[in-house]
Every structure is written in structure tokens, then in C-alpha cells.
Amino acid sequence: MQAYRGMNREEFEKGVTLLWAIWNNRNNEVKEGRRNTVQGTLEFALTYWEEYKRNQVQNVYRGERTDQKWEQPPLVTVKLNFDGAWQASTLTGGIGVVARDKDGEVL
Length: 107
Prior knowledge:
Blueprint: H1 9-32, H2 38-54, E1 79-87, E2 92-100
Antiparallel strand pairs: 1-2
Helix pairs in contact: 1-2
């Protein structure tokens, strides 16, 4: 589905944020019995998007990637490592998450 064709970047970002807010509202209703109104969901999405835009880093570091060694967390801690990438020209991206215990075992 190519529904985003013809949208500018801002419209696309707002649309994706709205879809996420609708999904989040549905999860809150199913899991917690809390439901927001349509207007409340829309306001939440737009407020979230505006805050996101205000906090964007304008000068992204494009230097060489450095390898970092995994460090053992304390005994009762789960360590989460995140990474992500975004290709602005195609409006595509991806993220990865790994959760490890104190021994470095993937959970």
C-alpha cells in the first residue's frame, strides 16, 4: 500500500504518529480498561508529535561508527541495547533491541 505518496514529510510523520496513538489507545482500553475519546487521541498525537519535533537534534553526527563492548549489568538487572537507522529519502527505517541478563545471555 502506497498511501503516503503525495504527502510531504510533515504530513507523513503526523499520520504515523496518529496511527501509533490510535494503536496505543486501543491497547490502553484492552489492557487497562482506559479509553480516550477521538478528540483526546488526536490531541495526544499532535502534542506528542510537536514535542518530538522540538526535541530533534538538528546536527546529526555522521562520523565513523565505533564498536562498544558489552558491559555486564548488576546481578538483578536486565540490560537493553537499542539501535536504529532512518533513511530519509525513502521514509523507511528500522530498530533493534536486545535484552540480556547478568551473564550476557539473550532473554
